[in-house]
């Protein structure tokens, strides 16, 4: 149990309003704090949500791949090899702080915005037989992108968290099979995140890598930054770059949470990564890459699930399972009994134990923070025989006896 | 259960020899892969060890502080405020890759080597009453230091993992009380890491921050990069910078795993962080900082616990609890029964299921990888009535019946 009095990052309604709703809500509720445009501190509540999102993603990924942790720094020559050093305009480079003034320009690295340049030579070093493919590796890690405008809170960071998965195959067919598996994993993840009814698969351009489409996982969201269009004949969504005029009627506002790409032979060719088949003939390697923005998802959910009073977290990623408010200090015995019952069932509690704050303020803080279940223990609730329960996403309160409550956990 | 055939990062004895033993062993055994000097990829086995170390550290830290996640990027003006931008020669700065050639020098940030410059203004923003102190916050995160020589493997990285804790107090006495608490937490951590008998507390200079000493947690290690000296009269260790000549006899080789510092008022003064006491008088804020190098500890343990055949992991941070080798494919039923028994008790298994590799090679791979318990299932072990058990840190093998083994888990 976490006592709210001991928690760093209390609600702060005076905190500034940002251009984006997610940053405003998350900062006022004490989840994040802006360090500078596009760069955020995760306070304890925010870190708990981020960890829950990342653990849901990790659990699904481990079913279809191995986890690694690649570095944030990489040598420039890898990016020269793929010629992306000049193409990616959001690349950041490091340089010794003292060197900059003296223009010596020693020890400079790329601060990775994505990891194809790192994982392809790494896999090449370890895989020497076609029998070791298919191979899929993922990581959950911090990425850096020098975005020109970073005004969308957690939706567009200069420093942000991401899950990236890369797969290696000896044929395009094998890659396509795996690509379908990842699609299913992604749907499982978005369902667990509480986004089942709002996740749509959208066809997008394959970029430089493939003539085929890539797929975006878009979340339907009133404040979404993207628009997609439905081709009703084929029941397929297209993003605005590739949607044909004849299907364009009302667009749907969405926010991107993940995408999956056929990379084809681009990177394996750049790094001369081939294998021999059983007849000693060279096999070209086909790659796919699959991203999910984990801190971005936290932002999307904040944009999507809220009301005038604050945040409304889906159960699986609520920072705590229960938010407990006791009216006065003399109810501590009852409160601790309830907390014990909850923790016995493996659920977590944030207890607003502050004694110098009125009930009304505690209730409005609970709404702002948005934990999915709220329990009030007051003289009134005890007179009625127990505790008052309220779901954050409903207006109904309900009185339960202690016993009924214990069974409901 | 992880099948070794499906694990990325197999042993590779042909992999190059580094100047440091830890990098050589960890790379040959498939735990890490050098990206460039001072920067490493963590492969699945290495990431498991790193996660175990970090979870031990986290568990103890959560007893005495709140967890946050601060960004790697920070604005330059914070470092100008503390004047450390010119003093810390290992600072790295970022710059847009395209800007560098055009010398526009826009959007440049500091890539944080430590976080006093970030946490002090953050805490100042949230804490408005002396009643909210003491406050302690920690994070486990990636740090960046532009080390001139980075030839010690995981012992001196340009990019590395670290736990850093910062505490805030309204008096030096309160800080000193908390400082002692952290000391105890650190001893608990090093005990759980399997380093109880080799951890010593060493007095070091307090640096620019305090006239008092700081404390280093040093691990006795033959290949250690530091030397400390024991003052036998007071039973106190001093590092070589401050040891007095009269106590200097034989030094003890050690490797630093953690340090704790009284920062005093340095950073709170730089950022004008004061509070009012109950009489409305200004109180100065006293700070402490407390580090543990988590990836560095992985390196220290690799340097310290090994033999001619490979790594020897302490039980609590062994990548898996059991390494299972079955002699031939027709023993799969027995093997799977053993694995089921182990997993029922919540323990983890790496199963060398390769069918194209001889027993001898599997045994020597098990030694190189260094998982703390090895189980061999062979015709010989079955004839003798069960499975053969061997601890990696002992030469003795033992035959157990299936039932005896099940009870021993």
Strand content of chain A: 25-35%
Largest interface: A-B, 58 and 58 residues
Termini distance of chain A? 15 Å
CATH fold field value of the largest domain in chain A:
BirA Bifunctional Protein, domain 2
* CATH-derived architecture of the largest domain in chain A: 2-Layer Sandwich
Highest CATH level, the class of the largest domain in chain A:
Alpha Beta
Structural class of chain A: alpha+beta
How would the global form of chain A be characterised?
Answer: elongated
Number of helices of chain A: 13
Helix percent band of chain A: 25-40%
**Oligomeric description of these chains:** homodimer
Largest sheet of chain A: 6 strands, mixed
* Low-pLDDT sequence parts of chain A: none
How is this structure best described in words?
The structure is a homodimer of 409-residue chains. The first copy, chain A, has 409 residues and is of the alpha+beta class. The first copy, chain A, has helices at 21-28, 44-62, 76-81, 84-87, 97-102, 116-126, 172-192, 266-270, 294-304, 332-344, 359-369, 379-383, 402-408, and strands at residues 2-3, 32-36, 39-42, 66-67, 73-74, 92-96, 110-111, 135-144, 159-169, 199-204, 214-220, 226-231, 236-239, 252-264, 274-276, 282-284, 286-292, 306-307, 310-311, 322-326, 349-352, 373-377, 386-391, 397-401. Chain A has a six-stranded mixed β-sheet with strand order 1-21-20-22-23-24, sandwiched between helices. In chain A, strand 23 and strand 24 form a beta hairpin. In chain A, helix 1 crosses helix 9 (294-304), helix 2 packs antiparallel against helix 7 and helix 2 crosses helix 9. The longest helix of chain A is centred in the middle third of the chain and has 21 residues, at 172-192. The interface between A and B is large, with 58 and 58 residues.
